[in-house]
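Running this now, will post back.
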Amino acid sequence: MTTSFSPPTRQVPLKTKLSVIAAVVFVAMLGGLATEIGAWYLSLVQPWWKPPDWAFGPAWTIIFACTAISAIGAWHAAVRGRDRYAIGIGFAINAFLNILWSVLFFKMQKPLWAAIEVFALWGSIAWLILRVSALNPSAARWLLPYLIWVSYAASINWGVVWLNPTEESKAAASTTTVPTAVTVPKAVPVPQALPVPQAVTVPKSEIIPKSVTIPKAVTAPNDPKEKPEPKP
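Update: finished.
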């Protein structure tokens, strides 16, 4: 009679669970801080398949919970050090790309840049699924909702880029700095040489007539009849 023997199932250490949960919560907080729904976001034309804004919070909560379960299972299944190193680096890169997307789209207001970056985010999830499936297939399946949601979010992102061409042109204009046209000053007209005034002919002073010689008083001749009065 043959009996089947199954090795005892190892329990995941509490320290591993708490560490993974703390890391996931930290990433979720950073992504939430980078997400700003303000006047700019509300002014965008959204594609018709975009869900209401209130649905994103519960959706990402479920996504992060599934990611934490997958990370715990993958870390616990990785016995060799190089496997744990690869899993840790893979989840760290994915967390960075997740936060970077929020920064590009909401903080920097660059939908086109975020739409390009989402391909790297999608690729990091696909790599994690393949890498984790080699260690723990059930843990890899917990990442499928994450991949599906990012694919859906990427379509919304590209829809925003398509419906808001002005935003795309702004992003392109910000990357290319057009030099400002230099205003060439007009040539300053050189003043013509001032004509040298001719010598002013000073009119000769009018000839002032010489003083008229007043003739001396004519002495009347003595009257012979008149005699000089005798002196007393």
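The mean pLDDT is 81. More later if anyone needs it.
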